[in-house]
Amino acid sequence: MTSSTSEKPLVELTKGLNGLDKVVLREVRGSSAEVYLYGGQVTSWKNDHREELLFVSSKAIFKPPKAIRGGIPICFPQFANCGPLESHGFARNRFWSIDKDPPPFPAATSSRAFVDLILKPSEEDLKIWPHSFEFRLRVALSPAGDLMLTSRIRNTNTDGKPFTFTFAYHTYFSVSDISEVRVEGLETLDYLENKERFTEQGDAITFESEVDKIYLSTPTKIAILDHEKKRTFVVRKDGLPDAVVWNPWDKKAKAMADFGDEEYKHMLCVEAAAVEKSVTLKPVASLTQREFSLAAEKTFCWFILCTGALLQFMVGVQQ
């Protein structure tokens, strides 16, 4: 632990690129995370060696209304083009607020470095998606440097109507070389590609060309192995049955203005998601107390830790 780290606050509100507000989370061993209020988006996660674990494009545009390319965008209330809204919905390009009085979490956490954010629809949002909601997001950094995102979405419609949505944590991982990466935990599963259904045949997922697949009924644990860096990301999820795996490869990379031509080699998206079957929430006002926790509010958890010779985060625990 360095003296400079110990002197800095565990949670700090400061200014980021283009004057946008961001919250910096720090743990005393040296790990850190950064969360922009624009998009409620994690844009940095570093281990205790100060190594960046998330990918953000060098051409990312930190200026509304453009979404930030990289980190962990929140896709809500629509994933991709699975509906009438703009791709990936509007939560990722709205300004979130710090939630100073969040309701209690169902489980205690050992994290002291965390921030609670909240998003409510504006009048303009209600014109394009006529449903009232409260979206609460907690981003927490554990003492060991693991990152956890917990989303709690509530239907606050006063007209008694339910609403449906799709969702994803669109996580961009930083990798050394995409050709040296493999994903384990999705073998033999069905997946959607261009709206057609297939079954995964390989022992593990490797990358030699563009990949854009939605894996269905996935396990709660998925591993991303980066052989060159001797690093393994272990991701755990709850309430999110699907997993999206995406790398644009060279042709699509060159077609994106906010993405470097060669950057596809150093990133991989593995996203915890609810896509195939949309989520339906009933309004709070129409439910009894017994029904409330299951029907009016939905909780999605996305927990990421690193193991490996270089990181020494929980080595030997996640086997």
From TrEMBL:
GO terms for molecular function: carbohydrate binding; glucose-6-phosphate 1-epimerase activity. InterPro entries: Aldose_1/G6P_1-epimerase (IPR008183), G6P_1-epimerase (IPR025532), Gal_mutarotase_sf_dom (IPR011013), GH-type_carb-bd (IPR014718). It comes from the Eukaryota. It is an enzyme of class 5 (isomerase). Pfam families: Aldose_epim. GO terms for cellular component: cytoplasm. The active site is at 170, 271. Its EC number is 5.1.3.15. It catalyses: alpha-D-glucose 6-phosphate = beta-D-glucose 6-phosphate. The keyword Isomerase applies. Coiled coil: none annotated. One of its GO terms (biological process) is carbohydrate metabolic process. Keywords: Isomerase. The keyword Transport does not apply. Belongs to the glucose-6-phosphate 1-epimerase family. This is glucose-6-phosphate 1-epimerase.
